[in-house]
């Protein structure tokens, strides 16, 4: 029997607000929680679209109209116009109506789409996504895409909220879904706070998880440790600065020897006092053996001046130190020999 | 891992080697018209690298049996030649490059050894020293339970004087070779690592002590020996543990019987990282301080490589001062700082190894 026409045929009736079970959220699709504009509209124009309810015992459950009910309650209304479906209407039918009311009226965000797909699947008699219904309701009908989206529903709230507000992309949400829920939530909070793009999020995720694996510690411990907290608590740091500080600290912890070498090289390069027009570049990652020296000039006089500085550069002990200490990661000079400390 | 199924290429079905292997390997066998369907099945498995260890494909090698070692121009290669007897491995090491090298990774054994023999005879007739090994695309001795491959090779190499065969393994499958008249033309070689690396990264391989006992048995049978510390893995305390391995090695083996020892720091194709993370989630081996090497592979940061290789080389020299120690795929800077010389000062790495083979195995040019 087709029940879908039933609600269209039924005339709206006034239903006591207190008879509606607002806690039963099974058919809720929307993630929107702001009530003010809706309440203002209802207050001014009245409720243009009646709720869709289903009879349940002595009261009703909501199929569609969760926000409208909340707004009416906020306005102190005691009755609300609604169309009422009988108990004989199936869950699958209610699901289609709930999804249709939302999806055909406005674009759904990823979380709402995930909810809609999960609801369609859960209410299908065989427990499988009815792809034709999904397509007709404007939802992704491809089984693979639908499965990916439905997994969002099982993610921790902080991740879902991040997806909902656009701070976390689907791809990142999926990566977070492979972590323990507490770690995924901590990453989501961090990403939402720092407002990072996907590539930067991936970089931080990779650094933190690899540090955790390397050090044999839980991911959460790295994320909530003093080292990162300090960057977030710094009142002088804006989001960009905090993000940069965090990345720098994570890099240092993940690649300590490489960082030390980079700093050692920088210290020695500064001692060269290269000035304008000369640039010394080490081999990438210090793996090759050739350094590059770039000369920049705009006139013959400048070139001749650089030639003189080149001679001085070749005699600079810091350059010799750079070349000799590369294999040891630019370790600092050994301390000068002095008198032995008394025993 | 255990082989559960045998697939036989229709073109190899009537080969006597196929019949011999079928008689020794008691698993269901299927003759297939070609590799395509099997390759597809392995590729489609949840864990292709694991599935490829459970099926053995008997086929013909349609290419060359002898190949050059796939070194790159950026790092010094030993110039060894690969005898391509089969591919992949029944053991399951986290770091194994073969998981990502073959598409799909699948145990294959080539039965047309008459072609291999012909290529070897041609090779033996060239007037230069050749170093040939079967342990690049597979472990040399995993095939012992089902084939007479290594026995045949040892006997063939014993009958000439220009080439040495290196059988490289992490197994202890040498019993079938000990009674052979090898004439020192076969080098039995073991890949060595610390107890920790073997325990955590080398599933299904023989324990260190067992490898050393097998090597000692080889030495007692007069075989020249070689050892490969490859991959050397860097972790807290690794230098002391590698030193301990060197100590145990020379407590078990007379240094004068060792032809060469190679050292190679862990390096891997970028694709291997995700594969290791998926197949060996407890392994921390990919979380070292790696950079992208000049050959595109991930390598430990050079100063770290130098430090660990230098430390291990010193330990080996302490016990075996005259042993030929070389580095696998490193540049002159690493050689200079870890071994104290560069290959060119000794005629180049291939020359160094040829000389070691000449001294220990009696091979000669001309």
Describe this entry's structure for a reader.
The complex is a heterodimer of chains A (343) and B (366). By secondary structure, chain A is of the alpha/beta class. Helix content of chain A is 54%, strand content 10%. Chain A folds into 3 domains: 6-152, Alpha-Beta Complex (Conserved hypothetical protein from pyrococcus furiosus pfu- 392566-001, ParB domain), CATH 3.90.1530; 157-254, no CATH class; 257-328, no CATH class. Chain A has helices at residues 6-9, 36-45, 66-74, 91-103, 110-123, 131-136, 143-152, 157-164, 170-177, 181-194, 198-215, 219-223, 226-233, 239-254, 256-272, 300-315, 317-325, and strands at 13-16, 20-21, 51-56, 59-64, 79-85, 278-281, 292-295. In chain A, helix 7 (143-152) crosses helix 9, helix 14 (239-254) packs across helix 15 and helix 15 runs antiparallel to helix 17. Chain B has helices spanning 16-24, 36-44, 48-51, 98-101, 113-124, 149-158, 195-201, 208-220, 238-252, 270-279, 302-319, 332-339, 349-361, and strands at 5-9, 29-32, 55-59, 66-68, 81-83, 86-87, 92-93, 107-110, 130-133, 163-169, 186-191, 202-203, 225-232, 258-265, 267-268, 290-292, 298-300, 324-327. Helix content of chain B is 36%, strand content 20%. With 366 residues, chain B is of the alpha/beta class. In chain B, a hairpin with a 5-residue loop joins strand 16 (290-292) and strand 17 (298-300). Chain B is built from 13 helices and 18 strands. The interface between A and B is medium-sized, with 19 and 20 residues.
Q: What characteristic shape of chain B results from the CA principal axes?
A: globular
Going across the biggest sheet of chain B, name each strand in turn: 4-5-9-10-11-13-14-18
Based on the coordinates given, report the CATH architecture of the largest domain in chain A: Alpha-Beta Complex
**Span from first to last CA of chain B?**
45 Å
What is the element string of chain A, with H for helices and E for strands? Answer: HEEHEEHEHHHHHHHHHHHHEEHH
What profile does the largest beta sheet of chain A have? Answer: 5 strands, mixed
Largest interface, per-chain counts?
Answer: A-B, 19 and 20 residues
Structural class of chain A: alpha/beta
Proportion in β-strands of chain B: 15-25%
User: Total number of β-strand segments of chain A?
Assistant: 7
What is the CATH level 1 assignment of chain B?
Alpha Beta
Tell me the domain tally of chain B: 1
Strand numbers in spatial order across the main sheet of chain A? 1-5-3-4-2
Classify the helix fraction of chain A into a percent range: 40-55%
Q: What fold name stands as the CATH topology of chain B? A: pyruvate-formate lyase- activating enzyme
**Helical segment count of chain A:** 17
Number of strands of chain B: 18
The CATH first-level class of the largest domain in chain A comes to Alpha Beta
Task: Find the CATH topology of the largest domain in chain A.
Answer: Conserved hypothetical protein from pyrococcus furiosus pfu- 392566-001, ParB domain
């Amino acid at each position: 029997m087709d029940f879908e026409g039933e609600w269209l045929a039924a005339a709206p009736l006034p239903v006591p607000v207190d008879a509606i079970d607002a806690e039963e959220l099974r058919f809720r699709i929307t993630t929107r929680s702001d009530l003010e504009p809706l309440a203002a509209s209802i207050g001014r124009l009245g409720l243009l679209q009646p709720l869709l309810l289903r009879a349940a015992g002595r009261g009703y459950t909501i199929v569609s109209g969760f926000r409208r009910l909340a707004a009416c309650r906020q306005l102190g209304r005691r009755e609300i116009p609604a169309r009422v479906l009988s108990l004989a209407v199936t869950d699958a039918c209610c699901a289609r109506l709930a999804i249709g009311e939302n999806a055909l009226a406005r674009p759904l965000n990823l979380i709402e789409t995930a909810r809609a797909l999960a609801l369609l699947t859960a209410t299908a008699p065989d427990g499988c996504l009815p792809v034709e219904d999904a397509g007709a309701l404007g939802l992704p009908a491809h089984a693979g895409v639908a499965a990916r989206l439905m997994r969002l529903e099982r993610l921790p709230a902080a991740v879902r909220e991040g997806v909902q507000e656009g701070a976390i992309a689907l791809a990142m949400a999926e990566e977070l879904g492979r972590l323990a829920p507490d770690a995924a939530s901590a990453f989501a909070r961090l990403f939402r706070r720092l407002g990072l793009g996907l590539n930067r999020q991936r970089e931080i995720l990779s650094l933190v998880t690899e540090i955790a694996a390397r050090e044999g510690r839980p991911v959460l411990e790295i994320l909530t440790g003093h080292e990162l907290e300090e960057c977030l608590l710094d009142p002088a740091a804006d989001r960009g600065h905090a993000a940069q500080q965090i990345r720098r600290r994570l890099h240092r912890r993940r690649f300590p020897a490489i960082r030390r070498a980079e700093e050692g090289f920088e210290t020695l390069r500064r001692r060269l006092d290269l000035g304008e027009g000369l640039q010394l570049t080490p081999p990438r990652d210090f793996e090759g053996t050739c350094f590059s020296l770039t000369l920049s000039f705009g006139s013959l006089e400048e070139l001749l001046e650089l030639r003189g500085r080149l001679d001085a550069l070749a005699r600079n002990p810091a350059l010799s130190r750079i070349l000799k200490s590369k294999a040891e990661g630019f370790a600092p000079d050994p301390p000068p020999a002095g008198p032995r400390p008394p025993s | 891992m255990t082989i559960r199924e045998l697939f036989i290429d229709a073109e190899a079905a009537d080969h006597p080697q196929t019949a011999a292997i079928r008689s020794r390997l008691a698993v269901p066998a299927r003759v297939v018209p070609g590799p395509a369907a099997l390759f597809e099945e392995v590729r489609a498995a949840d864990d292709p690298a694991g599935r490829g260890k459970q099926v053995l494909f008997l086929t013909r090698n349609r290419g060359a049996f002898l190949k050059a070692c796939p070194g790159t121009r950026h790092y010094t290669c030993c110039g060894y030649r690969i005898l391509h007897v089969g591919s992949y491995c029944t053991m399951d090491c986290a770091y194994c490059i073969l998981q990502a090298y073959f598409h799909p990774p699948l145990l294959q054994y080539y039965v047309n050894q008459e072609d291999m023999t012909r290529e070897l005879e041609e090779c033996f007739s060239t007037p230069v020293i050749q170093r040939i090994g079967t342990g690049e695309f597979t472990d040399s001795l995993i095939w012992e339970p089902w084939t007479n491959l290594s026995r045949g090779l040892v006997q063939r190499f014993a009958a000439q004087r220009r080439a040495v065969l290196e059988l490289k393994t992490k197994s202890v499958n040498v019993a079938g070779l000990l009674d052979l008249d090898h004439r020192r033309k076969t080098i039995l070689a073991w890949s060595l690592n610390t107890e920790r690396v073997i325990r955590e990264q080398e599933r299904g391989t023989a324990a260190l002590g067992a490898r050393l006992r097998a090597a000692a048995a080889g030495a007692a049978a007069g075989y020249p020996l070689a050892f490969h510390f490859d991959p050397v893995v860097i972790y807290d305390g690794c230098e002391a543990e590698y030193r301990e391995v060197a100590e145990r090695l020379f407590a078990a083996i007379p240094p004068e019987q060792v032809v060469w020892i190679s050292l190679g720091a862990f390096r891997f194709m970028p694709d291997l990282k995700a594969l290791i993370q998926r197949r060996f989630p407890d392994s921390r081996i990919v979380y070292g301080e790696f950079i992208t090497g000049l050959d595109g592979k991930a390598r430990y940061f050079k100063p770290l490589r130098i430090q660990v290789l230098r430390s291990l080389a010193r330990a080996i020299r302490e016990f075996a001062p005259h042993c030929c120690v070389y580095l696998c795929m490193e540049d002159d800077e690493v050689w200079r700082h870890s071994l104290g010389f560069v290959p060119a000062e000794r005629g180049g790495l291939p020359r160094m190894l040829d000389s070691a083979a000449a001294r220990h195995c009696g091979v000669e040019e001309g």
